[in-house]
Amino acid sequence: MSIRFGLPLLLAGLVLIMPVARAAPEEAWQGSSLSDETLKKVQLALVDYQRCINEDTQARINDRLDSRAMTDAILKQCEEKLGAVKTAFDQEKVPAEVSDRYMRSRRTHAARNILKTIMGIQALRAGSGQTQPQP
User: How many domains does the chain have?
Assistant: First the structure.
């Protein structure tokens, strides 16, 4: 699923989930109250995050590390880019439990995709008889 479709679906889900706010009524965060500016910040941060993931994956694809270790290294390298999403949500006063759940889902989604890519390439290499990366 691309970012273009994933973000609106997530935000629609937030709108449906948020009626159960625990704050006082005058301080309650409304899921539909995210500003266009915040949505734009989140979208740009996700694009930067995905770009970082893609570039770092390409840079490390010939590493001889275990696929899980390589995935962890890529995620750690790009974590700062994803932090901009949390910052945007915090500025909009999105409840921590909602933003933390969203951040976990983005990390999990990225980890699955990285792992799938790396394992696929490693399987192709093993199937073609390549034991070492080509220069």
Answer: 1
